[in-house]
């Protein structure tokens, strides 16, 4: 799998000279020399290598972290909702608070996804 003629390595910014394996990032589809990307020792006949460039790896890690944070926030909101059931509030206030919690969850999720 060689590089397109006009594509430069993400790391060294040189063209593919055909001496080492050329890798394409699974996420952004940009490429780099196996030596530059620290993916050395690849067999020259290896057809596909699952590789993600450093910038995309950071994005993926951030996305995973944000999803984990969203799940924690949703769990916290469910816990608050369960705690509110045990508190004696006027019915109209209790209904208002309970109705607001799912909307809060949705707003948190949307805000993080837009970030």
TrEMBL record:
The protein, known as: PHD-type domain-containing protein
Gene3D superfamilies xrefs: Zinc/RING finger domain, C3HC4 (zinc finger)
Organism ancestry: Eukaryota, Metazoa, Ecdysozoa, Arthropoda, Crustacea
Domain PHD-type residue range list: 6-59
Pfam families given in the database record: PHD
Entry-linked CDD domains: PHD_SF (cd15489)
InterPro entries on file: Znf_FYVE_PHD (IPR011011), Znf_PHD (IPR001965), Znf_PHD-finger (IPR019787), Znf_RING/FYVE/PHD (IPR013083)
Alphabetized UniProt keyword annotations: Metal-binding, Zinc, Zinc-finger
GO MF terms, alphabetically ordered: zinc ion binding
Leader sequence segment: none
């Amino acid at each position: 799998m060689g590089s397109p003629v006009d594509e430069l390595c993400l790391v060294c910014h040189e063209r593919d000279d055909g001496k080492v394996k050329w890798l394409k990032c699974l996420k952004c589809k940009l490429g780099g020399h196996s030596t530059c990307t620290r993916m050395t020792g690849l067999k020259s006949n290896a057809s596909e290598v699952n590789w993600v460039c450093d910038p995309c790896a950071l994005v993926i890690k951030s996305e995973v972290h944000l999803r984990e944070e969203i799940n924690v926030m949703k769990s916290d909101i469910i816990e608050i909702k369960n705690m509110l059931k045990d508190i004696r509030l006027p019915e109209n206030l209790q209904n208002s608070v309970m109705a607001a919690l799912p909307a809060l969850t949705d707003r948190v999720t949307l805000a993080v996804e837009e970030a």
